[in-house]
Amino acid sequence: MTTREPTREGVLQAAAKIAGLLPPTPLLPLCVGDAVVRAKAESLQPIGAFKIRGAWHRLTALSDSERARGVIGVSSGNHAQGVAWAARELGIAATIVMPRDAPAVKLERTRALGAEIVLYDRAREDRDAIAEALAEERGATLVHAYADPWVIEGQGSVGIELTAQMERWAGGGPTRIVTPCGGGGLTAGLALACPEAEIVPVEPEHWDDVCRSLETGAIQRIAPDAPPTACDALQTPATRPINFAVLKARCRSWHRVSEAEVAAAQRHALTHLRLVIEPGGAAGLAALLAGKIPPDGRTAVVLSGGNVDPAALAPLLAPGARTDLDRALALQGVPRAEQRRLA
Amino acid sequence: MTTREPTREGVLQAAAKIAGLLPPTPLLPLCVGDAVVRAKAESLQPIGAFKIRGAWHRLTALSDSERARGVIGVSSGNHAQGVAWAARELGIAATIVMPRDAPAVKLERTRALGAEIVLYDRAREDRDAIAEALAEERGATLVHAYADPWVIEGQGSVGIELTAQMERWAGGGPTRIVTPCGGGGLTAGLALACPEAEIVPVEPEHWDDVCRSLETGAIQRIAPDAPPTACDALQTPATRPINFAVLKARCRSWHRVSEAEVAAAQRHALTHLRLVIEPGGAAGLAALLAGKIPPDGRTAVVLSGGNVDPAALAPLLAPGARTDLDRALALQGVPRAEQRRLA
Q1: Is B2 part of a structural domain of the chain?
Q2: Domain of A231?
Q3: Residue A161 falls inside a structural domain
Q4: Per residue in A205-247, pLDDT tens?
Q5: Distance from CA of A249 to the nearest CA of B (A)
Q6: pTM of this structure
């Protein structure tokens, strides 16, 4: 695996390549308390997640002989679809190592994009070891979901795109970007893309390896007995040095969100943004809505993905699913001055 | 009420005004059969519907003395929010005549935008008569939801915007635009905006005044005993001469969709576009997905609104809600060549 560092120049190159490939995803205004924050809807990418960016930047950088030997990805589903989508566009064979318990919709869509899928057991097998063995056996290029300089730079293009949109529509670029954080690929990319902005990663409770790494100054792993989380996209065992070097230099605050806070954020997005956001994609929004981060008009939040099994959406909306947090949030979709009338 | 005709020049002026006010809504690719059609997500406007366009074009055309006397709107909810939003931005007093049975979310949001609301009974009262009396009493300007040249031109800006997007991303402007149709404001606007495209209005079964008017060559009204429809946004009693003149000259085909087809289209949008679309907003998509219109790569479909009560989304997703149509559609979200593997 390559060891070069990701750079802001690389992010700018990735952003230029992606601007020629895909229209910008919308940046939607959302009332949070007294502020109007901007939500970057990466859930509306063709694969339903930002991962298409890093995969495109990585695969377009392969040499002809590397392309001929194919690529190997490791992913719970969104990076899988990103690699499979880019590989199909470029005529490259893709093999993806995916957990057996990935959402059915992610497995189906990755297969539908023409990728070969190799399943593994999240609890008992080491996904990186499986992928590395496969890559060696086939001479294929391993495209890591986050510990890869091109992947980090590609994800960073989100930051370039949202900065241009905020300069046009929000009176100036972001001073704070709140983002869901798994292994730290998107978070590191945003940090490189937006040197003037505070970058705030958000993780699910118990899947907080980045938070604990930032708190201790050294990379920490997820506990083997971590309870299940709905945020399958953020279930990474640990961040890596290439990501952590950027995060450690740039992140001054970080947050954990509960499963209930994530579900309330998903419901809020359905009602007030008219968007389907997957649990992991709603983690940043959850931290904002739960009041963990003071919002203002130059705050952006990345809604990183929207791949949810329809069967998983139903219980979210079932009568009785709403909590006190939802009831409080129902009043945040409208300007503060009007809240008394609705309450 | 003014009687000037809406024009293509007016549509272009509206489009220029709106381009300075709001970012373009995204145009999303969607597999339908073997084709990739383009879905225009007007559900992502700040008020969750395209109606913000016509309201803005109309209200910005008022004189200072007209602005001072305020505006009156009539609407089941989306035009209401469009007028209320534009009025708030421009500092104009707005009163909206709304049906007592409008979705709660539409009533709440219109009120939250600062409008005064006057409720009426959809079955027993004539909404236009109430609004006209109010307008006369107050010297206010009546902003009709569809029978108004500025409103038609403003809605037509959807067509200008989607043409530019398709020229950039789909290899050429639309040859066919499929659209939900209520009174015919959006449909007439699209027809003026896109003279080269076939314009295909879609109505709910039994609420098919435009279909029957096109079939008979004269304006027809909805039967007083028409059964209920989930498509509250399309429950208009009849189109008007200013709309019908354009529709009669331009529409060569039109379609009705069932309540089940609309629900399946909403579910399909939730899963494959990651968008919440209200029933009326999904009517055009429903006709395409049900195979009533042959899709191709230059077909666009307008997803006109996304204002749904969360309580109305839950039953849509309840176990058992899926039909044979849903199961057939589940295979349309992926390229045809891959369907066998998933079936």
Answers
A1: no
A2: 8-49+150-342
A3: yes
A4: 999 999 999 999 999 999 989 999 999 999 998 999 999 999 9
A5: 34
A6: 0.94
